[in-house]
Amino acid sequence: MRRITYIYNRPAWPTFHWDSPSLLELLSRVRLRQGRLLGRMQTLGFPQREAAELETLTQDVVKSSEIEGEILKPEQVRSSIARRLGIDIGALQPSDRRVDGVVEMSLDATGKFTDPLDKARLFRWHHALFPDPGPRMIVGAWRDDAKGPMQVVSGAIGRERVHYQAPAAEQVDREMATFFAGVNRSGDADPLLKAALAHLWFVTIHPFEDGNGRIARAIADWALARSEESPRRYYSMSAQIRRERNDYYDILERTQKGTLDVTEWLRWFLACMDRAIAGAEASIGGALRKDRFWSRYAAEVGNERQRQILNRLIDGVFEGKLTSSKWAKMTKCSQDTAGRDIQALIDAGILVKDGAGGRSTSYSLKPGILDEA
C-alpha cells in the first residue's frame, strides 16, 4: 500500500506559507464585515447585545458538538451560559455536567482571550469536555496511541476509509510545544489568518484521544476574540461550519494530505467566516429594527398586553392573523379590553386594520414601521 505523505511529514513542517495577494481582497472584505458588525452592535441597547451574545454562544456550543455527532439540548446550554454570565432569562433549566463542561471551555476560550494557550489550559478544557470518561479513556493528557494510530476513519467495519492519520503519540508533546510558541506569538500574521492556522495546526496534531475538533474550534474562537480584542461573540463559526460540514471535512483532508501551502484552507476559512458574519448581520438587522421601534414608540404602548403582542409581531413569530379574539385569548383579557388595546395602537399609528370587517377583521403592523428612522 502506498504510504501517504501527510502535511506534518514535509521537511519544513510546520512552516506554513500562502499566496497573500490572492487572499487580500477576501481578507479585506471579512475584516470590513467584522468591524461593521461590531460597530452595529454598539448601537444596540445593553439588553439586546446581551441577548445576541447569549444566542450566539448557545449556537456555538450546540453546533460545535453537533459537528462531532453529539447532540446537546439548546435550552440546557442556554441556561448554563446565562447562569455563568449572570444573564436573567427567567427560570433556568438544570443542565448536566456534560453541557456545563462544554460551556465552561467555550467561555474560558473567549472570555479569557488575553491569556495564552498552554498545556495546562488545554488539559482543563479536555477534562471539562469529558467529566465522566470511560475507564480506558485518557482525559486531561496527551494520547498514548496504545489502541493503535490516531486515525480519522469513516465507513463500515471491514470497509473503512482512512481520511487522516495523526503524528505518532511520542511526537505530540514536542509538536504542541511548537504549536503554543507559534499561536501565542503576535505580529507575525494577520490575526484572522492566525485563527485559521491555529485551527488547522491543532487539528492536524490531534493531540487528544477525543474532542480534538471541538477544542480546535474553541482555539479558533480564542484567536478571533484576540483579533477583535473583545470577549463578546456575535457570530458563530461553529454554526456556519455545521452548515458546511461536508466541505469542512473535505478541505481539511485535502490540506492535511497536501503541501505546506495552505492558501486553499485559508480561503475556505475566511469565506466561511464571511458567511457566518453575514448571517449574524441579518439577525442583528432585525434586532436593530426592534430596538429602533421601541425607542420611538415605547411611550405610546400603555400596557404589558400591548408589548407582548407587538413583540411577537415584530419578531415574526405571531401565528396566523391578529384578531381581537386572538388578542383576548393570548393576553387573558376580555374582548372589550382587547378592542381598546388594539384601537389605542391604531390611534398611535402602530397598527392598521386589514381584511374585511365584522368578525373577520384583522390587524397588522403599519407597513414600513420597522424601517422608519
Write a structural description.
- The protein is mostly helical.
- The protein has 2 domains: 7-288, Fido-like domain (Fic-like fold, Orthogonal Bundle), CATH 1.10.3290.10; 303-371, Winged helix-like DNA-binding domain superfamily/Winged helix DNA-binding domain (Arc Repressor Mutant, subunit A, Orthogonal Bundle), CATH 1.10.10.
- The chain is built from 14 helices and 4 strands.
- The strands form 2 sheets. It has a two-stranded antiparallel sheet with strand order 1-2. The chain has a two-stranded antiparallel ribbon with strand order 3-4.
- α2 packs across α3 (74-85), α4 packs antiparallel against α5 (119-129) and α9 (237-243) packs across α11 (263-297).
- It is elongated and about 80 Å long.
Would you kindly provide a brief summary of this structure?
The protein has 373 residues and is mainly alpha-helical. Helix content is 58%, strand content 5%.
Detail the topology: elements first, then pairings:
Elements: H1 20-42, H2 46-67, H3 74-85, H4 97-111, H5 119-129, E1 151-154, E2 161-165, H6 169-184, H7 191-205, H8 212-228, H9 237-243, H10 245-256, H11 263-297, H12 304-315, H13 324-331, H14 335-347, E3 351-354, E4 362-365
Antiparallel strand pairs: 1-2, 3-4
Helix pairs in contact: 1-11, 2-3, 2-4, 2-9, 3-4, 4-5, 4-8, 6-7, 7-8, 7-11, 9-10, 9-11, 13-14
Q: Count up the domains.
A: 2
Strand order of the largest sheet: 1-2
CATH homology-level superfamily of the largest domain:
Fido-like domain
Helix content class: 55-70%
Q: Which class do the helix and strand fractions yield?
A: mainly alpha
Secondary structure tally: strands: 4
Unreliable spans are: none
How many helices in DSSP terms? 14
- Would you tell me the overall average pLDDT? 92
- Globally, the shape reads elongated
Tell me about the biggest sheet? 2 strands, antiparallel
CATH topology of the largest domain: Fic-like fold
Please compute the radius of gyration using only Cα atoms.
25 Å
CATH class placement of the largest domain: Mainly Alpha
| Beginning-to-end CA distance, first to last residue | 67 Å
